[in-house]
Predict the 3D structure of the following.
Amino acid sequence: MAIGFARNASSTALTQGVRGVFGLAAGILITRWLSEADRGLYAVIATLGVVGDQLGQVGMRFTVIYRMTRPGASRPRAVGAAVELTLAAFAGIALLCVVFADPLRERTLLGAAPIFLGLALALAAADSFAGLSDAIARGIDRFDLRNANQLAIPIVTLAASALALLQLQTGVLGALVATAVGRLALLALFFGLTLRASGFEWTLDRRELRESLAFGWKGYLQTLLAKVHERADVVIMAVLQLDPAQIAIYAVGVSVVDRLRVVPEAISSALLPTLATMPPAKTGDYTARVTRHLVFWVLSAVALALAAPLLVPLLFGARYTPSVVPLFILLPATGMLAVRSIVSNYFVAIGRPGFNAAVQAFAVAVNVALNFWAIPRWGIVGAAWTSVLSYSIEAGATVLAFERATSRGLRDTLLLQRSDLEDYAGRARRLLGGA
C-alpha cells in the first residue's frame, strides 16, 4: 500500500495549524475565566488525563500501524487485537483508580473532590481510544478521518468551556464535565467511522494478540516514557504541593510553547506509516532528509516566539506575564523534542522500538530526579531548565545512534544540503511562475 507522505504531512500540518488556533482560544478562555488556583487544578487534571491515556494504550498505536501494513496481514484482525488489548489495559487502570482513589487525590490532585479523579479518568479514556482511532486511520491512509477528529477536539473543548464558564458559570468543575462529555461523544462518532473504514474482527485471536503485545510492549515503553517526560514536571509540582497559581503560570508557558510543535507533530504522524511501507534500505536516507527540513522550520518557528513578552499578557492577562520566563527557557527543549520525535520513527520502522524506550527511560530518570531537586529550590524555573537538559540528552543519544545505524554524519541529518536549498528555490520559482 502506497502512503502519500507529502500529502498527509501537509494536510496534517494545515489541520494542526487550525487546531492550534481553536486550542489557543480555549486556553485563553479557561485561563481568563478561572482563578489562578482553579487554572492550576485544571492543568493537573488535564495532565493526569494524558498520563492515564499513555498508561492505557499499551503501545497499540505503533503496533496497529506496523501490523496492518505487513505483507499479507489481516487488517481487521490487527485492529481487533489492538482494540481488545487497549480495553483490557484501560479496565485495569480504572480498577487501580478506584482502589487507590484517596491517595491519588491527596498526592496528585491537590486534595480535590473525588469527582475530579473521575473526570481525569474520563479524559484519559477519551484520549486513549481517540489515539488508537487516530493510529488506525493513519495506518489505512485515511488522514481525512484522522484530521477531522483532530480538528473537532479543540472546537468541542472551546464550545464546552464557553458553555460552562460564560453561559452556565459553573467554574472549573463545570468546564471539565462539559469537556469530558463532549470528548466522549466525539470518540463514539469517530471511533465508529474509523472501525467501519478499516474493518474489525472481535475474535480473540491468540496469535495476533500475542504478537501484537510482544511488539507493542517495546513501543508502549517508548510512548509512555515520552509522555511521562513531557508531563512529569506538572505532576511533580502537584506532589510537592507547589502553589497552584505557580502551576498555572507554568502551564500557560508550556501551552504557548506547545503551539510550536504543529509542524513536527504533523510530520511525525505522517512519517511512520510511510517508513513502515518503504524498503529498509531507503528508510535512513528518507528519515535524514525529513529531519533536516524539520530543523529548518523549527528554528523559524522558534524565532516567532520572540513576540511572547507582548502576546502572553495580551492574550492571557497581565497576571500571567511571569509565564514568559519558563516559556523562553523551554524553547530549546521544544527543538530537541521535535528532532527526537522524527528520528525515533526510524527505529520503530526497522523493528527496534526498544532502543527508543531505553533512551527515554534514562532521560526520564534524569528529568524526574532533577525535578524533585530543582523545583523546591527554584520552582517553575528549575522545572524548565530540567526539561532542557533531559531533552538534550534524549535527542543527542537518538541522533548519534541513528548516525551509527545509517553511517551518516551530523551535517547530513541536521543541516540543509545544497540540494535541499535548490529544491526550495525550484518550488518558489514554480509558485511565482504559476502566480
The chain has 17 helices and no strands. The chain has a mean pLDDT of 84.
